[in-house]
Write a structure and sequence with these properties.
Layout lengths: L1 E2 L4 H11 L11 E2 L3 H5 L3 H13 L4 E4 L6 E5 L1 H10 L1 H8 L13
Parallel strand pairs: 1-2
Antiparallel strand pairs: 3-4
């Protein structure tokens, strides 16, 4: 997740994810306003942070453990839409992220 301090939409996304992901601490959060911290990150993380900064925070990305595969979920509205139609659960399963909901909950 790419977020900023004091962002109400970031808080909303955290709250939504608490009901979906088994352990929200497994999802890494990057503060896009921490310039010094971002300089220490990989170029891929810096690119995703730049995307979040130029669009809106928060932005949720799913990234494989080896970093080879990544998918943009998007902002809070996109997360809510994908929660509503079950697409987020399918994506979490593809990335091997433990979650609390089942696809049958959406069918």
């Amino acid at each position: 997740r790419f977020s900023a301090p004091g962002c109400p939409f970031c808080d909303q996304m955290r709250g939504m994810l608490c009901f979906v992901v088994e352990d929200i601490k497994t999802l890494r959060e990057v503060n896009v306003e921490d310039a010094a911290g971002l300089q220490q990150e990989s170029s891929a993380v810096q690119t995703r942070a730049a995307h979040a900064t130029s669009h809106a925070v928060p932005q949720l990305w799913l990234v494989s453990a080896d970093g080879a595969t990544e998918e943009l979920i998007g902002d809070t509205e996109a997360l809510n839409q994908q929660l509503s139609n079950g697409a987020l659960i399918e994506r979490l399963q593809r990335f091997g992220i433990p979650h609390l909901l089942d696809l049958d909950d959406f069918l």
